[in-house]
């Protein structure tokens, strides 16, 4: 059963972080004319109404995209903030499928996977009749095997699981290893929560042990990651990052922290290479 509902969290700091980096990765793919495919294995409903009861109940978006929209100059986040605004913020917040769709060219494709019946229905309705987007109702982990490598031979796989079940870090590490074998040329982006450090260290170690090459981790935390019950920060593991992406991440994360952070002495960001090229 799928219990997690992203509508409570849409536009929060974790969404901003993953989506700002995702937008940067998509811009890198657009540098070459040849077609690319994007596979979004945990796609959600595609867009979220920020005045809905779910979003209002947590108010998480106000501390996330709400603050970024208020910046006079978003600096290195400007592409992302402009796109989010063009897609309806602050009334609506785009999910990853909407962001990706907005950056596809006529030759590119998006494949979304979402098993939750309501979210799948919303996503399928959104893209009905769109020949560049396919929406599958199935398990994202299993879809990875079935739907890769894409015939285009280039593109990106986003893995953004809800982390509500035991073993999600293990499944994510195994999937990164699998994809590095099946779709070597592909860019992979895998989101993970930072509650406390121990599980993150174990995850990075599992990635290194899995034999995948060329992995970086971009991380942002709003507080010292010591309380295992809170989402203190989050990270994105990127395999096969485009030229200069690792260098570009730092200023983006710094700008995000300046806008979203609480000026807590425990806050911070890091871009680290987990496994060499
Ligand atoms: N990627 C989305 C975005 O950036 O807008 C947000 C995704 S949300 C964090 C995680 C999603 O995974 C939820 O919509 C949930 O229904 C879905 N989900 C849960 N279990 C899944 C599974 N086994 N396979 C694929 N998706 C799953």
From TrEMBL:
Record GO biological process: rRNA base methylation
Residue numbers marked as site, Interaction with substrate rRNA: 4
Pfam families documented for this protein: RsmJ
Domain of life from the UniProt record: Bacteria
SUPFAM superfamilies to which the protein is assigned, alphabetical: S-adenosyl-L-methionine-dependent methyltransferases
Subunit structure: Monomer.
The protein, known as: Ribosomal RNA large subunit methyltransferase J
Gene name of this polypeptide: rlmJ
